[in-house]
Prior knowledge:
Blueprint: H1 8-13, H2 17-22, E1 30-37, E2 43-51, H3 62-79, E3 85-92
Amino acid sequence: xxxxxxxxxxxxxxxxxxxxxxxxxxxxxxxxxxxxxxxxxxxxxxxxxxxxxxxxxxxxxxxxxxxxxxxxxxxxxxxxxxxxxxxxxxxxxxxx
Length: 96
């Protein structure tokens, strides 16, 4: 089966805030997906879940966001035919 390579805008549409809300995850202000290479030189996607600056630290603790990060990673991983690893980062607006 041929793999269709999706652009970053198409990948981002898979994990937009409205879709995260439907899964009962914390809802970021926005989601951005970029492509690049990782520390090993392999092609990768970088997915940024960008939250407001006033989001409490507790709301962004690993225990609170791990299922969301795993779901986002899985959506991108499946959509790109497991060609590029999706690194998912949770950031605040001022950190982005």
